[in-house]
Specification:
Keywords: Lyase, Thiamine pyrophosphate. It holds the Pfam family XFP. Its cofactor is thiamine diphosphate. It is an enzyme of class 4 (lyase). By secondary structure, this protein is an alpha/beta fold. The chain has 26 helices and 22 strands. It has a 6-stranded parallel β-sheet with strand order 12-9-13-14-16-15, sandwiched between helices. A 5-stranded parallel β-sheet has the order 1-2-3-5-4, with helices on both faces. A 5-stranded mixed β-sheet has the order 18-20-19-21-22, sandwiched between helices. The longest helix has 27 residues.
Length: 795
């Protein structure tokens, strides 16, 4: 059983320790302000002049002093207690602070040797901030010690809990800005403490930073009476500790006391669970830090109050290059930190400034937990042959693909029982998505109360369900970024809730790939099921396949989209995704019974190709080009294409039909646009240059046109897919309503193959009549036509 990390009680800091803490804090404040303003003269060795100032002033000062205070005091407890710690900076726009602190502790110079820890390096540190060719203003991947960009607010606390899961020796501190605290995702994240296992997980210490204002308005929580705020936080399961003030000496003393009290309580809770067998859910501490916005900056500018108001949010003095009074105020502000006491003549931080800084990998900018690729291990994925379904003949047997995948995931969960580095997350849908086999290997993590009627709840479980897609996504991102593996299973229509979150993660991965010191992490894997074509019973609200469109707009070196048509191809795709690094993999697969088309060996080969001809399904002789190509992507479209091919084989046996199945959607893109894309020679060989291509696609049809618009044969491409014609109806009626059904596909072939419109008029009429019979049948019987419901490839 994991032991609680050493977090022994410490006596109150001495006056000497408080003096050095203040020196560190002032140095960080000086560097943060300097990054916003200075091009040159970093140590103010000469009077400040306009040419020393950046032409464009960008950055966020308002939150920076508070972040610097937290960083300084984290240094103290990490050093004194020998902690392994990670900090999530929710106000990520306070990038100057985290950059300043990583430069002070030396971790920044270790990653960027040209930014030396002296006057020359200080000048470069300041110049590069929010400057062309430099670094972003946020706590981006370029910042050592960061796993959270913070440009989009709301996700910090979820990331913090994800980082703490299965990290029993780690303290994860999370600074939450009071603006961020107003977002829905952050509000939901307060419930994550009901899922934190004090035995196998680390601890999360939230620090709610109430500096009072957003860009232009007061923040809600900062205006609540203290007793009302305390009631809210206690209702979330926390015990608040308050640090309030604007006198640095008093705030340092109060912050040190609060940090020691919080860590003592965390130690006590972990020890009680790990050594004493306590099972009661702890009331974890939360620090409420109230300091002025823009603390220690200009109190007043042009007669208007700035410090402690929304005016200090970004750049308190905006006219420095043109306004002599602003320039004078800036110089006075910077000199108020007494840089001559903080840095020696060469610009190196003096001993007092560094007295609180931990050593080695305990520095916040050097922790390997913020560079998860250094810690990640390959998953023990078993042989797919152990789970493959037998396929003697295509299209004669059926399986539920996700149920088959569930058996594989259960084995992975079982084989990682000791190492605890794999989690399955989802919004209350594991069993609904047919993945319940995993419960044989791990229960659902749960620290709140239980009742006899509950099933599969487990204090130490690694299946995580909460009805918040935001929290599921945030947990998994934090888990992956700190070196572990996972899978997010979700209803297809509702994964859109995290559109913006996956966008941010993709940007993070794209940037990280360009940083040689960031090691690749395990991919973010989505399994989207309960999809549009099998949500006939839930209706229109549950029918939306557009997440794929959203993802394929993003960085091509990062995103991958797979539509396996049966159980064995799903196994093959999942095996690839779980082994991969630095990708976002989107897998769309059904949970309802689906025909088995390919054996395991065939599935491996087909998935490796990404797109290929199914010879057994077509009628071309191989000696000449086909008359028409029937293409498909997705399980239901594949079934409808094969049913259409079956009808063509029977009614128009002289027609040469080629059937092409696409698993990897990016294969349709040109090679120069995506690493998986086909060159023109490959694409033309598969789809021809001048023959009609009838493409049945799982999602919105215009995506296929967008992917293939530059291809030679694009003018011959006709795509059928979902076109927002949804309702509560039968499964086959869904495809009929969207003109994706087998009869419509046959009609499309007749309409588009030259000469068939006249020769096959009777066949086309028969197909149209079948659609008419379908409409009448379902309204009388409530079920699909027997010829559809009982169809199989070899019928």
């Amino acid at each position: 059983m994991p032991q609680a990390p050493r977090q022994d009680s410490n006596t109150a800091p001495t006056d000497e320790e408080l003096r050095t803490l203040d020196a560190h804090w002032r140095a960080a404040n000086y560097l943060a302000a300097g990054q916003i303003y200075l091009l040159a003269n970093p140590l103010l060795t000469e009077p400040l002049r306009a040419e020393h100032i950046k032409p464009r002033l960008l950055g966020h000062w308002g939150t920076s002093p508070g972040l610097n205070l937290v960083h300084t005091h984290l240094n103290r407890v990490i050093r004194n207690r020998g902690l392994d710690a990670l900090c999530i900076w929710g106000p990520g726009h306070g990038g100057p602070s985290v950059l300043a602190n990583s430069w002070l502790e030396g971790s920044y110079t270790e990653k960027y040797p040209d930014v030396t820890r002296d006057a020359q390096g200080m000048e470069l540190l300041m110049r590069q901030f929010s400057f062309p060719g430099g670094v972003p203003s946020h706590v981006a991947p370029e910042v050592p010690g960061s796993i959270h960009e913070g440009g989009e607010l709301g996700y910090s606390l979820a990331h913090a809990y994800g980082a703490a899961l299965d990290n029993p020796g780690l303290l994860v501190t999370c600074v939450i800005g009071d603006g961020e605290a107003e977002t829905g995702p952050l509000a939901g994240s307060w419930h994550a403490n009901k899922f934190l296992d004090p035995v196998h997980d680390g601890a999360v210490l939230p620090i709610l930073h109430l500096n009072g204002y957003k860009i232009a308005n007061p923040t809600v929580l900062s205006r609540l009476p203290e007793d009302e705020l305390d009631a809210l936080l206690r209702g979330y399961g926390h015990e608040p500790l308050h640090v309030t003030g604007d006198d640095p000496a008093e705030v340092h003393r109060a912050m040190a006391r609060a940090m020691d009290t919080a860590l003592d309580r965390i130690t006590e809770a972990q020890r009680a669970a790990r050594e004493g067998g306590a099972t009661e859910r702890p009331r974890w501490p939360v620090i409420v830090l109230r300091t002025p916005k823009g603390w220690t900056g200009p109190a007043e500018v042009d007669g208007a109050p700035v410090e402690g108001t929304w005016r200090s949010h970004q750049v308190p003095l905006s006219g420095v290059r043109d306004n002599p009074e602003h320039l004078r105020q800036l110089e006075a502000w910077l000199r108020s930190y007494r840089p001559e006491e903080l840095f020696d003549a060469e610009g190196r931080p003096v001993a007092d400034v560094l007295a609180c800084v931990p050593e080695g990998t305990r520095r916040l900018g050097a922790t390997p937990h913020a560079n998860g690729g250094l810690l990640v291990r390959d998953l023990p994925i078993p042989s797919l042959n152990d789970f493959a379904v037998p396929v003697d003949k295509p299209g004669t047997t059926t399986h539920e693909p996700t149920r088959v995948l569930g058996d594989l995931l259960a084995r992975v969960m079982r084989d990682t029982h000791t190492r605890r580095d794999f989690r399955l997350v989802g919004p209350d849908e594991t069993a609904s998505n047919r993945l319940q086999a995993v419960f044989d290997a791990s229960g659902k993590t749960w620290q709140a109360g239980t009742l006899p009627v509950d099933e599969h709840l487990d204090r130490h479980g690694r299946v995580m369900e909460i009805l918040s897609e935001h929290l599921c996504q945030g947990w998994l991102e934090g888990y992956l970024l700190t070196g572990r593996h996972g899978l997010f299973s979700c209803y297809e229509a509702f994964v859109h809730i995290v559109d913006s979150m996956v966008n941010q993660h993709i940007k993070w991965l794209r940037t990280s790939r360009r940083l040689p010191w960031r090691a690749p992490i395990a991919s973010l894997n989505y399994l989207l099921t309960s999809h549009v074509w099998r949500q006939d019973h839930n209706g229109f609200s549950h029918q939306d396949p557009g997440f794929v469109d959203h993802v394929l707009n993003k960085s091509p070196e990062v995103v991958r989209v797979y539509l396996p048509p049966d159980a064995n191809t799903l196994l093959s795709v999942a095996d690839h995704a779980l082994r991969s690094r630095d990708y976002v993999n989107v897998i769309v697969a059904g949970k309802q019974p689906c025909f088995d088309w390919l054996s395991m060996d065939e599935a491996r080969v087909h998935c490796a190709r990404g797109a290929g001809i199914w010879d057994w399904a077509g009628t071309e002789d191989g000696l000449s080009e086909p008359d028409v190509v029937l293409a498909c992507a997705g399980d239901v479209p594949t079934q409808e294409v094969l049913a259409a091919a079956h009808l063509l084989r029977r009614h128009l046996p002289e027609l040469a039909v080629r059937v092409v199945n696409v698993v990897d959607l990016a294969r349709l893109l040109p090679r120069e646009e995506h690493p998986h894309g086909m060159n023109d020679f490959e694409y033309d060989g598969l789809f021809t240059t001048d023959k009609p291509v009838i493409f049945a696609y799982h999602g919105y049809p215009w995506l296929i046109h967008r992917l293939a618009y530059r291809r030679t044969g694009h003018r011959n491409l006709h795509v059928r897919g979902y076109k927002e014609a949804g309702t509560t109806t039968t499964p086959f009626d869904m495809v009929v309503r969207n003109d994706l059904d087998r009869y419509r596909l046959v009609m499309d072939v007749i309409d588009r193959v030259p000469g068939l419109a006249v020769r096959a008029t009777a066949v086309r009429q028969r197909m149209a009549d079948a659609r008419t019979r379908h409409h009448a049948w379902i309204r009388e019987h409530g079920t699909d036509l027997p010829e559809v419901a009982e169809w199989s490839w070899n019928a």
